[in-house]
Design brief:
Largest sheet: 5 strands, parallel
Strand order of the largest sheet: 7-6-5-8-9
Number of domains: 2
Distance between the termini: 12 Å
CATH topology of the largest domain: Rossmann fold
Length: about 325
């Protein structure tokens, strides 16, 4: 079933129904098959897309740029020093200017209220490429990867292990509650998610049959799960707390013991970048910072590069569905 999402923004998955999320996943599968077959319908032909980046990016920038190009659009990168956003010009005014010139706007930055203001005033679809609170385009890629491995999303046993308060934990919990997963956040009590957000997710879960569990028990939290997911222990801007995070999360590092405690067919996911070996400046400076062992990261269970590729196909689906000519 197709859904009319034309003109819609994507700021958080709170705003999308189970059916709409599944539609975007299905559309992602179709567009991925098309690309692999060399079929490019140019659903965004003659469209111009603004890509605003306050934070550096590899996957989000690359995915939006390639997705635009594949579908016939022109992507325009606007870095934090390229425009006046919030500096010499209000966000409201910038939104109204860009909305007159572009057919869609991606924003990746810090405050979630910035992307909300852009969406309120731009008059064109605005897509959240990451804020401190939410990362919805990443979740769509994660869920496409899960579906490719298990053929479904509903009732999947999914454990997020690590910092339970960051944008990935928040977004995965909301997404899982929307599609009916058995979802757990496994984190030390000091890093449990906001209680109000947990209650909000549990309300969504009542409609879909999802279950939401927050626990600090690693063994019980990962027992028999089909997906183990983690993220870095300190997000951008949190470098000063890395030593404390290492001490707090040492027992939550994803290792083969954790993998062996899960389902035999468990997959390991990570939004990347990851500290899994010694070949980064950060790992050299903080040897204990690794949130996953290299053994797990390079194992048959790891689907992180399928997941990274799926950023492209799911971002393409979001843009085609909300700003394209065909859907």
């Amino acid at each position: 079933m197709a859904f009319n999402l034309r003109g819609r923004s994507l700021l958080t998955l709170k705003d999308y129904t189970k059916e709409e999320i599944n539609f975007l996943i299905d559309l992602s599968e179709t567009l991925k098959k098309n690309k692999n077959a060399g079929i490019f319908p140019k659903n965004l032909e003659n469209k111009n897309i603004a890509l605003i980046f306050e934070k550096p990016s590899t996957r989000t920038r690359a995915a939006f740029t390639v997705a635009c190009t594949d579908e016939g659009a022109h992507p325009e990168y606007l870095g934090k020093n390229d425009i006046q956003l919030g500096g010499k010009e209000t966000i409201k005014d910038t939104a109204r200017v860009l909305g007159r010139m572009f057919d869609g706007i991606e924003f990746r930055g810090f405050k979630h209220e910035t992307v909300e203001k852009l969406a309120k005033w731009a008059g064109v679809p605005v897509w959240n490429g990451l804020t401190d609170q939410y990362h919805p385009t990443q979740i769509l890629a994660d869920f496409l990867t899960v579906k490719e491995n298990f053929g479904k999303l509903k009732d999947i046993k999914f454990a997020y292990v690590g910092d339970g308060r960051n944008n990935m934990a928040n977004s995965l919990m909301l997404g899982a509650s929307k599609v009916g997963m058995d979802f757990k956040i496994v984190a030390p009590k000091k890093l449990h998610p906001d209680k109000n957000l947990v209650e909000e997710a549990k309300e969504f879960a009542k409609e879909t049959g999802a279950t939401i569990t927050i626990t600090d028990d690693v063994d019980n939290g990962t027992k028999g799960v089909q997906v183990i997911y983690t993220d870095v222990w300190a997000s951008m801007g949190e470098e000063d707390v890395i030593p404390q995070r290492i001490e707090l999360l040492e027992d939550y590092r994803v290792n083969m013991e954790m993998i062996n405690n899960a389902d035999d067919e468990v997959i390991f996911l990570h939004c990347l970048p990851s500290y899994h070996d010694d070949d980064t400046d950060m790992a050299s400076k903080y040897p204990g910072i690794k949130e996953v062992t290299d053994e797990v990261f390079e194992s048959k269970h790891s689907k992180v590069f399928d997941q990274a590729e799926n950023r492209l196909h799911t971002i393409k689906a979001v843009m085609v569905a909300t700003a394209g000519k065909q859907f």
